[in-house]
Amino acid sequence: xxxxxxxxxxxxxxxEKTWKAMxxxxxxxxxxxxxxxxxxxxxxxxxxxxxxxxxxLSTSSAWGIMEGAIRNLVNEKLLCCMCGAFSDKWLxxxxxxxxxxxxxxxxxxxxxxxxxxDEKLDSGNFDAITLVHNETSTGLMNPLEDISxxxxxxxxxxxxxxxxxxxxxxxxxxxxxxxxxxxAGTQKAWALPPGFGIFVVSAKALExxxxxxxxxxxxxxLEFQKxxxxxxxxxxxxxxxxxxxxxxxxxxxxxxxxxxFARHQKTNKMTRxxxxxxxxxLFPDAGYESISLTCVNNGAxxxxxxxxVPRLQNxxxxxxxxIDGGYGKIKGLAFRLSNMGDETEETIGDLITKLDDSMxxxx
Length: 363
Ligand SMILES: *Cc1c(COP(=O)(O)O)cnc(C)c1O
Known about the structure:
Layout: E1 5-6, H1 16-22, H2 32-49, E2 55-58, H3 62-73, E3 78-82, H4 85-96, E4 101-105, H5 114-121, E5 128-132, E6 134-135, E7 140-141, H6 144-148, E8 158-162, H7 174-177, E9 181-185, E10 197-201, H8 203-210, H9 221-228, H10 239-255, H11 257-277, E11 293-297, H12 309-318, E12 321-322, E13 334-338, H13 345-362
Parallel strand pairs: 1-12, 3-4, 3-5, 5-8, 8-9
Antiparallel strand pairs: 2-10, 6-7, 9-10, 11-13
The structure holds pyridoxal-5'-phosphate.
Pyridoxal-5'-phosphate is lined by residues 10, 61-63, 86, 132, 136, 162, 164-165, 185, 188.
């Protein structure tokens, strides 16, 4: 079989231009050339993430930073906000790290509401929380701005936020949000190859890390800060990824960030409308749908249309496109269509034409 165009919610399709940038000849990671490269992307990353803090580059997938964040910041007890596969898993990760943690579980497809977090934090037992902004498994976007307002009431609680499938798709202003860690891997909303991560950490989080003896080595926040001040990374980074990221950042700014965000809104509306045109409902609660992917209900909620998802996936494969068949406990009971990264009205239009044809063939 030839290459299948990826419309799964990660990894997503990587452009020829990005592959070319990745193949830039190698340089030494302690060289001036490397410092030039980092100091070129640094202000672009700061503008993208609305921060004056230094943005760190991690040679790991998102989970590395996610584990690192709790190892650096939790001294007492962690509250894990859980609403889907990725957010649920964070509790498991904390347990495996020997970190005391408790889950705040809501039903898959429902959002985490600030009131629920407030009730938990009010006990005074927690010194950190984890939150997944865009829960990729359920296609749900949590109300990050409202949740972040709790920071005023609980300034000493570290707010750790995963934005793997929202960073670059929606505006994120780290400094304005006032949160403590914002992190992402590169293979989803960024449309870079997998294996790399980006994160930003508050001054308060660095103070906390300094007091945490078991923060480990590879993801030691203090090492990231010390090195970033010199436009370097603690260990040898994936320099090809940074070259690719540099090319991608240039694309973001030549398109214009607002245009990029508007493009995601438009293309996401197209996939949602496709679902409702065929009688499907969406899996996430109304008002909390993601804008970087669409999670179509297919029997998980007892309403709307149901199709044979593996057959639909096969019919799409015959047309050169890979779509997702649902994740974790809702596999087959929902399916997901990604509009992350470089997708345009034209490419999503093509996806929809092929989905329409496949639905006809399904009968
Ligand atoms: C994919 C994903 C992750 C995991 O990323 P890895 O790159 O596999 O470590 C974490 N959080 C969210 C929201 C994701 O979508």
